[in-house]
Design a protein that fits this description.
alpha/beta, about 40% helix, 5-stranded mixed β-sheet, elongated, two-stranded parallel ribbon, 7 strands
């Protein structure tokens, strides 16, 4: 089962629709066009289009599978007293006094540019269940970070 926000679910549905209704027909047209050019054994365009079709079909199957097991979380039922899925956490790195804020989301919604980190990431795993004022140590590729939780919101 994959828990996610309504926004993440809607985005995944839109991506799947785009792949099925726009990208896949383009590739099928490219295959048909390449097939009309003759000998398929040495037709690079045909083989490239077939590879692209396989890649698209794989993405479509993956997104369909995620949506099949997806459960949208009702944010009204969540509390903001502890760090959990869909909570926004503001924290301070105690080594360099840098402030940062992340929203804990499902792996399919993670996007660091938008400040969304996967619940499966080392930082999120260390923060889960913690409260405001708690200090946690997180082992990351760059070493160990010491973080203090400043606020938790939905």
């Amino acid at each position: 089962m994959e828990y996610m926000s309504q926004e993440g679910y809607d985005k995944l549905v839109a991506e799947l629709h785009q792949l099925e209704s726009v990208e896949l027909p383009k590739v099928r047209d490219a295959i048909a066009e390449a097939r009309d050019k003759g000998d398929l054994s040495e037709n690079f365009e045909y083989h490239a289009a077939k590879r692209e079709q396989g890649r698209l079909l794989s993405q479509i199957r993956f997104k369909q599978r995620v949506l099949e097991f997806a459960r949208v979380i009702d944010t009204k039922r969540l509390g903001s007293d502890a760090v959990g899925l869909l909570t926004k956490v503001e924290m301070t790195n105690l080594k360099n006094n840098a402030s940062m804020a992340y929203t804990i989301v499902s792996p399919h919604e993670a996007n660091l540019r938008e400040g969304k980190i996967s619940i499966k990431s080392p930082v999120a795993q260390a923060l889960l269940g913690k409260s405001v004022g708690d200090v946690v140590e997180v082992r990351v590729p760059a070493g160990v970070q010491t973080l203090r939780i400043e606020s938790i919101t939905l």
